[in-house]
Amino acid sequence: MRKIVHLSDIHFGRVDRNVVERVIETINEIGPDIVVVSGDLTQRAKTSEFIEAKQFLDKLPKPQIVVPGNHDVPLYNVFDRFFRPLEKFRQYITEDLTPTFVDQEMAIVGVNTARSLVVKGGRVNRQQITHIQNIMCDVPQEALKVVVTHHPFDVPEHHDERDIVGRARLAIPMIAECGADVFLSGHLHVSNIASTAERYRLENGKAALVVQAGTATSIRGRGEANSFNLLEFAEPTLAIHRLACSDPANGFSIVETTTYRQSTDGWQRDV
Ligand SMILES: [Fe+2]
Ligand SMILES: [Fe+2]
User: Which pTM does this prediction carry?
Assistant: First the structure.
């Protein structure tokens, strides 16, 4: 069985330090094959926040796939925002803006969706879509194929659809052709699982799961306790656990598990 820990929206600068310690403890106990962080490592893209984020990542298991979020781009320093938006992310976190992990059972690709021209929104571009296709179309069909972005490809019911990543309608069918299984993202500070079959019309390719992580450590939880996801994949089954922490004294525990089974049309929920 392969284990992927997916956490998001860490937001150093606005964290609960007790929760940060519980996250580190719990993830090390789980001992995942890989850790995915889907952006917003900082609150205001300050150097001190990136240093703390790097120290946090250093305490988590490797390998890691880390992508930036809109909060990792400077907001008030106009020069930095437009001329070197990801300089600190690249300096302190990683130079690699298309982090990739591929083996016989899993292919995971991250891309940056944060953009300088919009404050909150995000976008995926054609070059990034082609990059994802090149990797995913090349790995065996049975492998679990995962795309990581900060901005989501779907939002929960009644949520503002403007939060969906720009060019999603272009990207989803192209990536589906290469057999994508799961899209991991954050940004909303709300947990959710949806199927691409609900929002997108796919003529070729199977439906994928759009998995949203809440905020792992930020004090801005939008009404939800701090949480992160654990995905356990044993072909043809994928279990998605949500671990939450309502009181740092008690730590994180599994509060919800949803199990899916691979079929020719995509992922069907086990009932
Ligand atoms: Fe965030
Ligand atoms: Fe965000």
Answer: 0.96
